[in-house]
Task: structure prediction
Amino acid sequence: MPALDWFLWGEDDVFVRFTRKCYTTRLSRLSAFYLPHQWRANKIRRAKHSQLTHCLRQMSETERLNELYILAKRCLTALSYILGKKTYFVDDRPTAVDAYLFGQLWPLLLYESRHGTADWSMLGHAANYTGQSASHPLIAHLLQCPNLVAHFIRIQNEYFPKAAASFRQDIAVNASKRLQSANLFSNHPVRDCLLVGSGVLCLFFLYARHIGMIRIAST
Result:
């Protein structure tokens, strides 16, 4: 899926925080220094010059990349409609279609587990997602297709139980970090105001002295 390739390799923040770390955990330091950037260049080139993007050649590059996400959202909506209330797409057990979709959703939901704001694990039982919005528009749209996320959770729990436990742990750790970060400022408002105010005054003093508004006479 070109949109997924662009999300993982073309988005700078996602590449630095997530993709590069995932692909370099078992590489030597020397290989990890240059290989991810080679892979990234190839993936971006493939995403920009896929058969799908050739149909959008009349658009600018920015418009074309935005259109990739729009088309990906339409695909997710269509797949959600086709799946409906069924357990799997074709039969009473997973087929190649289920495996393909599972592989496409894995990095999106793993990224959200580690770096996002949405606890999507509740969609294994809930009919609608009502939690915090996701960290990326593509993932946010995926969460609005709860049967697709439930489909992912179902396969993961049945065939990859260790990975499922790791996902839940990532979500819990990420939520704990966000809570600690929020409490860091909310628990000591007076102290934080004094620190910020002192910093602003110091910066103003240094700037004023630099431009000559304040002069210190030497004795």
